[in-house]
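SEQUENCE-TO-STRUCTURE ENTRY
===========================

Subject: a protein chain together with a token-level encoding of how that chain folds.

Sequence line: the amino acid chain in single-letter code, read from start to end.

Question of interest: how does this chain fold, as expressed in backbone structure tokens?
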Amino acid sequence: MQRRRTQKILAMIPPESSGSSGNESSDEHVDYTSNYDSSSSSLSAKADENELDELLKDFELNPIDEATREFFDSIDENIIEEEISTTNFSPTFVSDISKPSTSGTFPLTETEFVSPQPSTSASMSSKSKQLSTRTSKRILNYNVRTPPIPLPSPQPSPLPEAQFVSPRSSRKYKIEHMQFKWKSEKQFNFGVEIPNYEFHTNNKEVLTPYVYFKRFFSDDIFDLIVQESNIYSFQKFGKSVNISSAELADFLAVQLWMGVNKLPAYTDYWSNLMGVPKVQDIMPLKKYQKILRSLHFQNNDEYDPNDRFYKIRPFLNKIRQNCLNQEEGNRYSIDEMMIPYKGTKAGSRRQYIKSKPKKWGFKFFIRAGINGQVFDILPYGGESTFTDIKFTDYENKYFGLGGKVILALASTIPRKPLSVIYYDNFFTSPELIYHLRKKYGILSLGTVQQNRLRNCPLLDEKKLKKKGRGSYSAKCDRKKKVMVVKWFDNKSVCLASSYVGVHPLSTTRRYNKTTKSRVDVSMPQIVKHYNSHMGGVDLADMLIAIYRTNMKTHKWYLNIFSQLLDVCVNNAWLQYRKDCVELKEKKVMRLKEFRINIAIALSSKNKPKVGRKSKEMCIPENIKIKKKIVPRPIDDVRLDRYDHMPIVGIKGRCRMCKTGQTTFSCDKCDSRLCITSTRNCFKTFHKQK
């Protein structure tokens, strides 16, 4: 056994002529070789076995090399002396990838893996064979996962440690942390009273739903979609579909109806069994499909490789600008919004968030009011998320993705001082809370993760649990004006704020499993503020989910279009409700009724009415008005031979023979059928399968 281990070590020793490719060694390598005297004689492949035995004893006494010893013990016992190759494999290490290798090989790049290179200068014996692939793989794993064998080298500089160069690029900015001086909660003296913002409308009466909707989905958006859709249809199909603004309005009306009346497939709205007359009266199916195929928002010739959402960017920017033009309050919540999408055409734009009801889709960061009205939108596009946003060196130094999202969305707040932002623990850090108040005068509050407390000496969860539900631990930094509170309910939760603390304590009702009744639990003021104002984005998500406009298509950007269409409808409804409160309107439309009113206005406004001629407008006589299509009865009804009675009605075409005209029809099937001396379509229709 001892001899076998000796031979295995010999296979790993570099030859006398080989040397390190670097001139300097790392500090870690010096630690590995510091136990050996550099003046001792070098050990080569021809070393005496007695010297190796002494060396092995030294290895067993050295605790640093326990992993090395276990590595050799784990090698398969079937590998015998004859299996070791005459070619001695010596590991090649990287000490400086920018310098050329002394062995004549090219220098490694950042994405290359450090692999062992064969050395042909040393041999064991003429009877040995070449190393097996399995053995070489073990040597490769050894080079990467364990430090080099601490053997004296014939060169003055020891062998450097093996390195794996990560293919990922290093961060441009290294995120740093501030130092906070946490004191007792009793020193909290930077609380701020936030006045309630009062909305004032300039309208003397409540406007129509269509007018509120056009505040967000303006005429320039109609012009953009019409222009880009016609260009795209010409690029794609060789001819323009010539969509007009009126046809686009009809298309949007159909989409709004589909959100209220949901069916499995969009073709079902025009089917005989499940058709919706309101949708069928707006436009035929083929026209809807023609617009759906051609719907576009950006010229493909203006491709921007740095923008992952370039196909929807012009439309998104106009919707965002219209949202920013509306009157805002002074309390906002910032959170993620998922736009559902399970397709594969979007590539890495599609994200997964397990905590969301719609887990797969596009991730958008939203700044919304506490009533659910969306004010600002920031799509997440990986590295291109902040392409058009500039941050200072200070902000790049202390903030990652979450902090930069808050800064980007907070920059568009019209009245920053004394505004309050609420966000969750994905974004929160003490540095962000301090920076928002110091630079912009924006107050903030959010839950914070335990690893971002910056060494705040709060009580752990076990001690708070012993004190019971409602217990808390709080600290503050008076200089940076940051308050941190850990409150225990069923579990502990940490919150940080720049304007509110623990007092005055309030109470909340919680269910007690022991007494099987609801009991009062004390709650710090910071928790009450968070629960009251954080749910703005979730409320916007809920309103969208009630009557969601689903566009079942392979084009990923149409899902974003439908989501933004719903955002416009919901924002319009929320503004309508505020005006109703301001003007003391008693009858307030619900969201469904409000949405239907917009659909009717889109499909009927400034368009001729089909039906009786009015005095103001004369319809040309050559207009053909289509008659109502009567669906064919299903076979189970047609062939049941029960209660099929002929009646006499208006003359029309026979359903069976297609060429005959008759006044007879079946009362049950509602179908005209011939009964003449030469043919009896009535009988044939109810018998023939």
